[in-house]
Amino acid sequence: MSGAARLGAVFAETRAVLTDAGFADAAIETRILLAGLLGLSTTEIFTQGDRPVTERERSVIADAVARRLRHEPVHRILGHREFHGIDLRLSPDTLEPRPDTEVLVDAVLAHLKRMAAQKAVVSILDMGTGTGAIALALLKECPQARALGSDISPGALQIAAANAHLNGVAERFETRESAWFEAIDESFDIIVSNPPYIPTDVVESLEPEVKDYDPRKALDGGRDGLEAYRAIAENASQHLLADGIVGVEIGYDQREDVVQLFEQNGFSLIEWHRDHGGNDRVLLFTR
């Protein structure tokens, strides 16, 4: 990319590079990437096709394209992404939130609002909080909610705290380093988690955007993918207030196994939800 250029031409060139490299969604990715890098909306990428692109901007774009060709996800290149109406910073310490996890937020949100109509404060524990996505989305939707985000990664907790400030809910959000319930003494109205659930021997077969850029500890659910669910199911009842709920995201083929784990520990399944692809994705339990 050298010499004077207009945005329309840069878009076409970038899309062609990604298409030739085999990226199926090259046009969409180019639109998101250029919009984020140039500070434009995705609509302005098309309506401002005659906009000049400076040499400095072209250099930034070329670097971003090189990173994408190494299969770094677009939103990781940009350093942030939107999730359930909030903006989240990303880092190598955090899983990149996916749209399927919004299904968990929506499922829990209905119960959160019901509880908020009955009590002044509703307490949430988000285990394996990562970017803080689930907890912060719930806090944004319910002013009466307060949340504790726990994680084994200090780096992830720093990002979660920063995201709480970024989205204006920091006064209702705290973080704590903890392996599941290890450092948790309190009880909560809602316990929620998108835990690692991919079997160890499957992780290496994942697409490079996931296995090379998401933290391994946020993916690897142990030999059978169920280690985290065992830890949650075996201990959640000690940390759940009366009439509280537990909500978890699951792998597409794990519903029966996870339900069995929770039922063996005194819980009953009250809801299950499918993701945007029609796969089982969210389970809600109560005691």
Characterise this structure.
The structure is a single chain. With 287 residues, the chain is α/β, with parallel strands linked by helices. The chain is built from twelve helices and eleven strands. β3 and β4 form a beta hairpin. α2 crosses α4. The chain is globular, with a radius of gyration of 21 Å. The termini are far apart. The model has no long low-confidence stretch (mean pLDDT 96).
Largest sheet, if any?
7 strands, mixed
Number of helices: 12
SSE-based structural type:
alpha/beta
Task: State the helicity in percent bands.
Answer: 40-55%
Helix and strand arrangement:
Blueprint (H helix, E strand, L loop, with lengths): L4 E2 H14 L5 H13 L5 H4 L4 E2 L1 H15 L4 H5 L1 E4 L2 E4 L9 H18 L5 E6 L5 H9 L3 E7 L2 H13 L6 E5 L10 E6 L6 H4 L4 H4 L15 H9 L4 E10 L5 H10 L3 E7 L5 E7 L1
Parallel strand pairs: 5-6, 5-8, 6-7, 8-9
Antiparallel strand pairs: 1-2, 3-4, 9-11, 10-11
Helix pairs in contact: 1-2, 1-4, 2-4, 6-7, 11-12
